[in-house]
Design brief:
Helix content is 41%, strand content 19%. It has 334 residues and is α/β, with parallel strands linked by helices. The mean pLDDT is 97. The protein binds nicotinamide-adenine-dinucleotide.
């Protein structure tokens, strides 16, 4: 199959492009390089430009009339920035996505896979969430994702567009061949911070929030290896029509996580085991807007796509550490 991957120069997009290739498919990348590095595109078919550039989308489809599906990953993704710059987030993630979907539908490219997020879920007792659970998106970023879920559901009800919405939990780790991984200079997420503390790039790792109502007081997340997440996209593309035939709907939402909740303290313990020595730790108050967390009920992913996560948190930590040693060669910076 040939698959248009918007945001294919990014962290998850580049690794998904690789997984598609390994499964015998051909990714066609559309990315503005707003944040993703050109080095991650490698030798793939690549169009540099904006998702809302309708003439560019038309040219891509003219040159690749055999595109079977679109994976729409292109977005702005930094939560605190979305609080400071809501206009840019609603414009790029909502208004531009709408233009893209309208153009794709006009061109008859009706299969759309959309990258959504577990950050939409309201806090739930026990922390295990199913797709129908209540939502309470806490930031402008999360609200753009919620809006696009609603937009896709409405478009799919009214037109030939069909949508499979994947709610990613917490992707960590790197491409298995270390060709891509986290590329931001100072990652704000927990594993990125741990890697920096372990490598002496910061004095200590700070656990933000130790009084949450969890088994050890720290936040719960569902850390899914990005390579497993990439495989979920391969399955979703291959089984797109079957997935919607089994639900009997024109759009559907699927959690993509491991099904295991891991606290920050548990992640630190795994990290120290894989890294082989202790990391300096400090404790601090929760950051504004930090959620207690959630982990995925993954029954739907298994039932509809035949997909389950295969790799462990330790595998992902090892791959994040290996990428931290290697990324200078790919990116030109530590
Ligand atoms: N990383 C996570 O923890 C996470 C969790 C849940 C959901 N997601 C979603 O997964 C998707 C991919 O995330 P990522 O971590 O790989 O992010 P990323 O920033 O590495 O990738 C996004 C890519 O989109 C491109 N882009 C942004 N706006 C564009 C536009 N208007 N036109 C063309 N290209 C544009 C960027 O240049 C970048 O390469 C996003 O939609 C994100 O919201 C990510």
């Amino acid at each position: 199959m040939k698959v248009l991957v918007t945001g294919g120069a990014g962290y998850i997009g580049s690794i998904t492009a690789k997984a598609l290739e390994q499964a015998g498919h051909t990714p066609v990348i559309l990315d503005s390089l707003l944040s993703g590095p050109l080095a991650f595109v490698r030798d793939r078919i690549f169009y540099e430009g904006d998702i809302a550039d309708r003439s560019l989308v038309r040219r891509i489809v003219e040159e690749h009339p055999d595109i079977d599906a679109t994976i729409h990953m292109a977005a702005r993704i930094i939560v605190p920035e979305s609080v400071e710059k809501p206009y840019e987030y609603y414009r790029d993630n909502v208004a531009k996505s709408l233009e893209l979907f309208d153009e794709l539908t006009a061109l008859g490219l009706n299969r759309v896979l959309f990258s959504s997020s577990a950050s939409l879920y309201a806090t739930k007792e026990g922390f295990e969430v199913v797709e129908d659970d209540p939502l309470d998106p806490p930031s402008p970023y999360a609200r753009t994702k919620h809006m696009m879920e609603q937009v896709l559901t409405d478009l799919a009800a009214a037109s030939d567009l069909r949508a499979v919405i994947l709610r990613y939990f917490n992707p960590i780790g790197s491409d298995p061949d270390l060709e891509s991984g986290i590329y931001v200079k100072e990652p704000s997420h927990v594993l990125g911070q741990l890697v920096m503390a372990a490598r002496g790039q910061k004095d200590a790792f700070t656990i933000t929030g130790v009084d949450h109502p969890t088994r050890d007081g720290t936040g719960v997340r569902d850390y899914v290896h990005v390579w497993d997440l990439a495989q979920a996209h391969v399955r979703a593309v291959e089984r797109f029509d079957d997935v919607l035939a089994s639900t009997g709907t024109t759009s559907t939402i699927i959690n993509v996580g491991t099904g295991e909740g891991v606290t920050v303290r548990e992640l630190v313990a795994s990290f120290e085991r894989v890294f082989g020595s202790a990391v300096p730790i400090e404790e601090g108050p929760p950051r504004p807007g930090d959620a207690v967390g959630a982990y995925a009920n993954v029954d739907r992913a298994a039932e509809l796509m035949g997909w389950r996560a295969d790799l462990s948190v330790d595998d992902a930590i090892a791959s994040a550490l290996a990428w931290a040693d290697k990324r200078h060669e790919v990116l030109g910076y530590e």
